[in-house]
Amino acid sequence: MSARHIKSVATEWEWEKDMPPAPAVRAGNTLYLSGQIALGANGEVVGEGDVIAQARQCFENIKAILKREGAATSDIVKMTTYYACPLTTDVTKEYWKVRAEYFGDYRPASTGVAVNALIFRPAGKDAGWRSRQFP
Q1: Helix, strand or coil, per DSSP, at residue 89
Q2: How far, CA to CA in Å, does 121 sit from each of 37, 38, 72, 124, 134?
Q3: What average pLDDT is seen over the chain?
Q4: What is the spatial distance between Cα 19 and Cα 121, in angstroms, rounded to a whole number?
Q5: What pLDDT is stored for residue 131 in this prediction?
Q6: What pLDDT was estimated at residue 3?
Q7: How buried is residue 133: exposed, middle or buried, by Cβ count under 10 Å (0-12/13-18/19+)?
Q8: How do residues 51-100 score in pLDDT, each as one tens digit?
């Protein structure tokens, strides 16, 4: 595939313009999203220390980026979520409830990984939604 079939998705939020990676890259009919952290539209950390609030913000960011390209969470094929926080049974259950708000009964292939730290320190969760495909 030549580079002319690959395009970066335009930034929308001011803080995205300062980030090295594109919010997403389209290659043909596949959309690859950069990992998301819990930053609000103004660049502020949402839910610092609250993994559930951060999860919700990550999903909102992903939803907004997908919408820019005419896609939705139901188009997600595979997601990887990195957790830089203690994962208790209660936190895990609450995370799955938040996730269900965005996916309903749809279950994309998924992996969750516990890590020591993320590159952006104030965030405790990185929703690494690596690949999406849609018509």
Answers
A1: helix
A2: 10, 11, 28, 8, 33
A3: 85
A4: 15
A5: 37
A6: 62
A7: middle
A8: 899 999 999 999 999 999 999 999 999 999 988 888 899 989 999 999 99
Structure-token pair, residue 49: 């220390």
Tokens 């936190």, residue?
91
CA distance 105 to 115: 28
Q: Which helix (H) or strand (E) holds 58?
A: helix 51-68
Would you say residue 6 has pLDDT above 80?
yes
**Tens digits of per-residue pLDDT, 101-116?**
999 999 999 999 888 8
Q: Which residues of 20-53 are buried (b: 16+ CB within 10 A; e: fewer)?
A: eebbbebeeeebbbbbbbbbeeeeebbbeebbeb
pLDDT at 32: 95
CA distance to 15, 23, 39, 125, per residue, from 118 (Å): 18, 17, 14, 8
Neighbouring residues of 111: CB distance < 8 A, sequence distance ≥ 6 = 79, 80, 81
First CA to last CA distance, the chain: 18
> How many residues in total does the chain contain?
135
